[in-house]
């Protein structure tokens, strides 16, 4: 009798398993072989947006050669008397080592973008601040950008040289909705200073400004 | 002793780490929606991390913004968004370091005023601060990567969703039909617009129109008072006369929360006249005209 009661109690315990153990998955299946049950697999991927810049750009005017007095050539300092405008391309960029992918082109910054949300609108915008003190003789809006044809598969950025402004302006183009799903998308930008007037008065010194690149996905 | 002191002074300059140009940030989610009753509060978290194994100093800013007709974001100066919730928002961390691995959680909280009605919005901008300026070496630009996350705050129970179609166009460009639906949010709450564009063949009497092509554009957010243009492209390798374009979009669960529009498709050939010809038949030579014989 004791054994019978023991078996009865044990059987009851076995049958009274917490329902939580049986609630998940396809349930308890018993019978002849083979038997199958199912398990639900859930994958949650959050919407993520990101931007990475690996380069700072610098113009060291002491490194530019002296100009010809009779003709205007870019990247000469001081500008030739023949110049009505002049371009200065960066000559002292610094890019972080160990980054994935090729180095940026001359005069370009390494920029990469990521957004894994397939729907909505991606906006890529840029702006430039003020000089950190005084002025080198020209405004920060003399800084121009243009998309680099290298390392920019989605053609992000303006097609023509475009002055940065103090307020954020759209620079995005190309098929942005395929941007950086996996892996990140390179979106390198070229930089230069464009001085359109001979009335510029260069001020000796070292000056720095910040350029903001903003990505948003809505 | 003098030499020893000199070395001690120089050493800190040499050992000072040069600031690395690399700066990057990742944030999730890409948009925040906070819902609370008028006079109440709601909060949610944005996870922020470095884009690579390095620490970054992050600054969190709250800004005003709007969206243009194509849904592109535009940062606004303070006070220019009449439905701004910037003043209601706070973040628990405005200046912090992201670790080399892992993320930081920034909690965004909205405290709604008692008279809030519908939806309001502002922008959470998370930017990577550049290192302090170093001396020497010319004039330069340092970069501030920034992620902008729209925050939409809605006063629960006060929503009056309403959307009106202001135009619908469809045009064939030789390979596809490009459609554009213009809708204006005439209500007081932000709406998520989802739907489809279709091309339909006219129906024979007694039967339903036949769908030739369809496309579901990305869902788009419509803000109160704003006009939004939703565009689509439907592949049409062979032009077919008589097709009409349709737009079917929903902005809520109830049957009334939907808009529809239809349009002829510009650029498609006209429907052929009876007989099936696309052009009048070529004139026959008149009697007596010698006909040229081919050799």
How far apart lie the N and C ends of chain B?
115 Å
The low-confidence runs of chain B, each spanning 5 or more residues with pLDDT under 50, are 4-18, 291-295
Helix content of chain B: under 10%
Strand content of chain A: 25-35%
Global structural class of chain A: mainly beta
Rg of chain B (CA only): 30 Å
Largest interface: A-B, 57 and 47 residues
The helical percent of chain A reads under 10%
Number of helices of chain A: 2
Low-confidence blocks of residues of chain A: 1-22
Series of secondary-structure elements of chain B, N-terminal to C-terminal:
HEEEEEEEEEEEEEEEEEE
Q: Please state the average pLDDT score of chain B.
A: 85
The structural class of chain B is: mainly beta
Give me the count of strands of chain A.
13
Globally, the shape of chain B reads: globular
Morphology of chain A? elongated
Per DSSP E runs of 2 or more residues, the count of β-strands of chain B stands at: 18
Question: Quick one: biggest sheet of chain B?
Answer: 6 strands, mixed
Largest sheet of chain A: 5 strands, antiparallel
Fold and architecture overview:
The complex is a heterodimer of chains A (218) and B (295). The N terminus of chain A is likely disordered. Chain A contains two helices and 13 strands; from the N terminus they run H-H-E-E-E-E-E-E-E-E-E-E-E-E-E. With 218 residues, chain A is mostly beta strands. The radius of gyration of chain A is 31 Å and the shape is elongated. Chain B has 295 residues and is mostly beta strands. In chain B, 5% of the residues lie in helices and 48% in strands. Chain B is built from one helix and 18 strands. In chain B, the strands form four sheets. In chain B, strands 2, 4, 5, 7, 9 and 10 form a six-stranded mixed sheet that branches. In chain B, a hairpin with a 7-residue loop joins strand 17 and strand 18.
